[in-house]
Amino acid sequence: MDHHHMFEVGGAHLSRLEDLRLIKGEGCYAADWSLPNQAHAAFLRSDRAHAKIVSVNTDAARKARGVLGVYTGEDAVKAGYVKPLSMLTFPGKDGKKAIIPERPVLAHGKVRFVGDLVALVVAETALQAQDAAELIEVEYEDLTPVIGVDAALKAGAPQLHDNIPGNQCFEQEAGDAAAVEAAFKKAAHVTRLKLDCTRVVPNPMEPRACLIGYDAGSGVYTVHVPVQGINMMRMQLAAYTGLSDDKLKIMARDVGGGFGQRSIAYPEYAAAMIAAKALNRPVKWVSSRSESFLSDSHGRANYITAELALDKDGIFLGMKLDWIADLGAYLHPAGPVSPMRNPVVCLNGVYKTQALFGRWRVVLTNTSPVSAYRGAARPEIAYTIERLVDEAAAQMKIDPAEIRRRNFIPTDAFPYKTPTGSVYDIADFPAVLDKAMKMADAPGFAKRRAASEKAGKLRGLGFSTVIENSGAGMFPKDEVLLEVAADGNLTAYSVSHSQGQGHETTFAQIIGDALGIKTERIKLRQAINEKPLMGNHTGGSRTIVGAGTVCHLAAKKLIEVATPMAAEMLGVEPSQVAYANGEFQSKESSKKVTLGDIAAKKPLSATGEGKFGSTFPNGCHVAEVEIDPQTGVTDVASYVTVDDCGTVINHTIVEGQMHGAVAQGWGQIFGENVVYDPETGQLMTGSFMDYTMPKAGWIRDMKIYDHATFGTISPLGVKGMGESGCTASLAALTNAVMNALRPLGVQPLDMPLTAPKLWHAITAAKKGN
Amino acid sequence: MYAFQYRKAKSLKEAGELLAKDDEAKPLSGGMTLIPTLKQRLAQPTQLVDIAGLAELAGIDNKGGVLTIGAATRHSEVEASKAVKDAIPALADLASNIGDPQVRNRGTIGGSVANNDPAADYPSAVLALNAKVITNKREIAADDYFQGMFTTALEPGELIVRIAFPLPKKAAYAKFPHPASGYAMAGVFIAETAGGVRVAVTGAGASGVFRWKEAEQALAKGISAAAIEKLTLSADDINEDIHGSREYRAQLVKVMAGRAAAAIAGK
Amino acid sequence: MAKVTMTVNGKQCSGEVEDRTLLANFIRDTLKLTGTHVGCDTTQCGACTVHVDGRAVKSCTMLAVQAEGCEVTTIEGMAKNGKLHPVQQAFTECHALQCGFCTPGMIMAVSAMLKDNPHPTDDEIIHGLEGNLCRCTGYLNIVKAVKQAAGGKAGH
Fold this sequence. Notes:
The complex is a heterotrimer. Chain A is 30% helix and 24% strand. Chain A has 20 helices and 28 strands. Chain A has a 7-stranded mixed beta sheet with strand order 3-5-1-12-9-10-11. Chain A has a 5-stranded mixed beta sheet with strand order 7-15-14-13-8, with helices on both faces. In chain A, helix 10 (337-345) crosses helix 11 (378-396), helix 11 (378-396) packs parallel to helix 19 and helix 18 crosses helix 19 (724-741). Chain A starts with 18 loop residues before the first helix and ends with a helix. In chain B, strand 11 (196-202) and strand 12 (210-211) form a beta hairpin. By secondary structure, chain C is of the alpha+beta class. A 5-stranded mixed beta sheet of chain C has the order 2-1-5-3-4, sandwiched between helices. In chain C, helix 2 packs across helix 5. Chain C starts with a strand and ends in a 7-residue tail after the last helix. Chains in contact: A-B, A-C, B-C. The interface between A and C is large, with 60 and 55 residues.
């Protein structure tokens, strides 16, 4: 069966259904909402990384023009908004649970990072609020900032939170320590690497914003914020504020990029709720990009020491890790869960390595809190394994493709239970690698390298073969509601919320395919409070697996529900009715009724539901780079992807996701990097002036292929793919650079591989020779 | 942004008077540096005196071996100007690589030269081409004009009216932009002028734009990349920050100088 | 406070604003044209790009009072009589947008680019996009859309 063909019903290559409003400027993002009589907020943020708050004098600010109210940590404590939700609930080493720090929505007693919220000012205009915020006088007693995991874990390090000794709030181990010890004992070769997966800023293009409405009569807050799904936002906000779910109405329409950053109920939102209630007026806050850099959740920041033991033939005997996650000054709700869970799920990567062991620590520092960023520690574990494998191959002088082939889980071994207990359902790693090598013309590389050398450039080819677990979901099931209108048009309701992924199109394709109806007749509505549904937010590459599959099930259920209604209208037994392309027909006569006809008589709807665990998308990415030794600048000469994300619903969208995710991988490897001054804790890369975002031209072309196996978790065979571009590209790009530089004697380098870093490495290596 | 009063000057004279009367007033031209600075609340002027529309500051003119560009001329105008392309193509080329298209549609040559950002492009051209900075009060030779980062010979209330570039025999500019900001990490302008070869470096100097005298001497006998290849630029007076060491920037200066020299040699 | 008057999308518009009000805020808050987005505060991202007297500018780095008497076009003024501008058409056909937040600024920048240079090379397209950031698409489909809008062969 050609699984690609089935989703062409609505025309997978046509424009996306959501595009029209967006290209006309008619989208509605968080800052585009307005409510009558709204007031405007500005925050005073800490200008230092670590200090005791001695006093906060708000007198001048309160008297300033247009000011309606000023709120501080006292108000946050009084409201009881002090403890964010934590999803790090599972036990760690020796059964010990995580210690969760408190975080009053406005800092109380202490500030713990540059950008920490000190006060909220609400005024008639945003400019007035900003002016007044500057009039607040804060007396601080400076404390020594703790920047970086080494500083945090050092004996006698200043402590961020009284209840978290040594700044370590969680530790866990996974795998089999004894087996790993035995494996390393008998190893013919051991490769050891220190791998810094640097801290980055997600930077969706839409800055955060919120508009809080409050109805004093009902006590209901209407919270307009960017989300990845309203249930996650509501759950977190309810936990932070102690309000029940029914007092929180979450509103979102278009969301300008997410990448994990939108799944958090930030303290700014809850602080604005305090003001909205106190003033009985809607309160609006729009973040500047400078504030985004300071206070949006950051990503990655995992510092890993990894060792791989091999026998003389390059067979992987065992791997051990020491993994330290820098979560910043406080814990975002799911922040520490990603690095504690995802690396364990795919600890063996695509290989049959049997002995695995790791130690993970969650550490707090005086920096902006860290949370999931596209991949959420999946790219980090893939990067770790694929860097180890590549260096091991080089050290043992084994072809890097060959060493991978020797260690792949064989295609006939699926479903495959991994040493850490995951079950990879289906994959075909050797075929994916072979196809990638072919499409990248790996055999022709030597010739291309020689040509580059002639032109004074260093050329390298690198690749990665990776696997990742799609999100298992935090809610017990996913639901999608389908309603039919009298004109036969359908509305689908979902919890999972697009931040650019194109749900309106792909969901319509799935439903349209199941019902034989054109996609244009199916409208998806997300974040509709009036249609309460159970379900997960969009994250962890899981939406197509969860909500997407449920769209299919809901459509099937709709036919089931409508059949007896059609039969009644046709005057025949339900068994005598056949459905096709929006119509029910009596088998005996030519009489027909449409879905619309039925809906005109009686309300017609169906709710599909399903629970789906992790799937395992995988792939091989091949990068070819050319480095100018004069300047250290790396040019990505070619980039080829071969991915197995199962059934592809919409190739255009899948390619778009791949472009964007690989660009983010490129950003992390070649430019993006959050730098805090180690002495003062000031953010040195606080704007697009200093923080290198990918720009047009970072690559000229990308060749995207798939080699799909039909996933067994979803009846559609889908596996998800939003994050695989990040997961595969970090190692592929780094391996390519190291492949170019290794002949000079350059030792393994850490990201970001900026031009100055490469120039220094090349220069030092040349001097050494 | 702090509150201020906006005044649109009707004449150069009025602008000069408004600025002379109020030490805290600032002239506003394209605003591509000033407005971002105000947005970050890094400056608190009482008044902004808008000089962008003044006729006295407009116009591009090539006469008597001198290309004169009005201070309010936007980068995109210099980039597209036939007169500039005919007279000093390297200057049009430089303008076409400032910032980005939107910035070039607002930013002005006078604003850039008055601000003297150590990573701005124009100062290197003004210095290498031995241009004259003509203000509402006097004429200032390029060698006297630039006095360190964000520091110039301009006095309070003094406004650049136009810049006069003597036509060089040959000239070229090569720039290594910062990957995030687009500003020069090293920009080298080489010009063969009536008074000899001049090499001006922007982006890299610890105290702003400077002339690389060794390179000027090396190129005096003939401009070629090979002549640059033999030089070593001392890193002592080179800027260093999280984006690059002084050694790296010194290397970039050399590479950019080589590229500019090669461009001239190839012409 | 100042009274400003300008022509926006062919219609004369006036408003009372503080002198420090940015053009972007005037467009969004006073005129309620929220298709112009603000994505940064350092004049880098280009989400706020509009045309002022036919030239692409970043409306976050221009005061509303500076646009006094100017002709301003925003994304809302691009489609004419129900017909999309060719750049809008190309963006949707080439899947050059995902979240759509940078898109209005991109479309305004690209349409201005093509006015100056109707048949740009790949290098010229990339150079012309230097003032606009996109976090979703990796830019490949944006470049493709520019080519398609310029009449070149692109798309699928």
